[in-house]
Write a structure and sequence with these properties.
The protein is an alpha/beta fold. Helix content is 44%, strand content 14%. The N and C termini lie far apart (64 Å).
């Protein structure tokens, strides 16, 4: 007989919540009702000790407590729960593993929230240098200007490597960057690992040279890896001090936060800084993570707990599959899609040697390709072209292809075939 029927038979009537709680206890625990008498229903034979009470909805937090906090409902994971504490520790451990980071902070919101959190924590009244390779590294300048953050900002822009229309672009030459760092002695250098507006990637040697130069003058290197896909950056090998990522591209998870990794130097220096934001207080979010790492929990503002649980699961899935394997798959997929587009006559915005495998940006003269309409008409969502903010000509017109996600990476042949079929119909 079901628990609901037992309860109704004994009491005649019960609230729906009581029946659901009873049913959840029965099925989540595999059965521990030892009596069907009214007295048994009022004892620990039916209601186990408080520490063992399961959540109301077992698909949310099977082993959690009944939700009567002021923060969440029964349909969300509570930030104080044992389950979420494990989620946070797992995320921290795995991100430290893949990026070779000293510390990890999670900032609710999106990748841009992480960028602003870093700027407001470290760059206030400091001299900053930005390597701008497109619209999304122009974002550093937008953040600086909106918050009146740095004392000075120097920008080194990408530039064409050839003359004529639809010229390929490359980042500022590394010798020029190193010379500028030595001349201006910035406190921080900001750069995009992969620039989403141009499909441009900074190679490992470029990163190392920037890091060495800024460390020589006592500064730190901040790298935006939000669009890196599964081209992981080793912070120890590259010399990066602050790395910003997010769940929705390289991690195949739902957006909802920024992931900020710190080197030992950045972890040391953050204690001497004060953020100019409450919600984006990076030091506070670092303290929150460190509370979880220490076996407890803490609260600053409400976290996207369910999204973070999903992120943890996907990071673990990727770890089990192999971080190196998904990196190789990303490289293969990007190489093949770029070759396909070149074969059809589309010119890459990113020059040879700087072409990202996860973001492909090509020129077009067709407004319906630029906007993505022609792709949408055949069932494919791409991204419209955006400006570079790198002194490009007025007729600069592009479209953008994203090659993110484990489902593409684990089936490179299929991903290429599906895109090739769509491209044929677009043309």
């Amino acid at each position: 007989m079901s628990v609901a029927r037992i309860a109704l038979r004994v009491h005649g009537r019960l609230s729906l919540e009581s029946v659901v709680v009873a049913a959840n206890r029965r099925f989540a625990r595999g059965g521990w009702i030892r009596s069907r008498t009214p007295r048994a229903l009022m004892t620990d034979s039916f209601f186990p000790p408080e520490a063992n009470v399961p959540g109301l909805l077992p698909d949310v937090d099977r082993d959690g407590l009944l939700e009567y906090s002021v923060v969440y409902t029964d349909r969300s994971i509570n930030h104080m729960s044992q389950r979420f504490q494990h989620v946070m520790r797992d995320i921290s451990d795995l991100l430290k593993k893949v990026y070779h980071a000293k510390s990890v902070a999670i900032v609710p919101g999106s990748g841009t929230f992480g960028m602003e959190a870093v700027a407001r924590q470290f760059a206030t009244n400091r001299k900053c240098l930005v390597i701008r390779n497109g619209w999304f590294s122009y974002r550093w300048s937008q953040i600086f200007e909106m918050g009146s953050i740095p004392s000075e900002s120097i920008v080194l822009k990408a530039r064409p490597v050839e003359s004529g229309r639809q010229a390929a672009y490359a980042p500022a030459p590394i010798d020029e960057v190193v010379a500028a760092i030595r001349e201006h002695k910035p406190d921080l250098v900001f750069a995009p690992h992969v620039e989403t507006a141009s499909g441009m990637l900074l190679p490992d040697a470029y990163l190392r040279a920037v890091a060495d130069a800024v460390h020589e003058v006592g500064g730190m290197f901040v790298l935006d890896c939000i669009a890196s896909g599964t081209i992981w950056v080793d912070m120890e090998a590259s010399g990066v001090d602050v790395l910003v990522s997010a769940p929705q591209k390289g991690w195949s998870a739902s957006p909802g936060c920024a992931l900020v990794m710190l080197s030992p130097l950045a972890r040391e220096r953050i204690d001497g800084t004060t953020s100019t934001s409450f919600a984006c207080d990076l030091r506070k979010w670092l303290q929150i993570m460190e509370a979880y790492e220490g076996g407890g929990f803490a609260y600053h503002a409400t976290m996207p707990t369910d999204s973070l649980a999903t992120l943890r699961d996907v990071i673990k899935e990727t770890d089990a599959y192999g971080f190196d394997k998904v990196r190789d798959e990303q490289l293969e997929l990007g190489t093949r899609i770029r070759a396909l587009l070149a074969e059809k006559g589309f010119r890459s915005v990113a020059a040879e040697g700087f072409q990202a495998p996860g973001v492909v940006v090509c020129y077009t003269d067709d407004d319906d390709i630029r906007s993505g309409k022609k792709f949408a008409d055949v069932g494919v969502q791409i991204a419209a072209g955006v400006p570079l903010q790198c002194d490009e000509p007025a007729d600069f017109k592009t479209f953008r292809i994203g090659l993110f996600g484990l489902d593409k990476l684990h089936d490179v042949d299929g991903a290429v075939a599906r895109f090739a079929d769509a491209l044929e119909r677009v043309l």
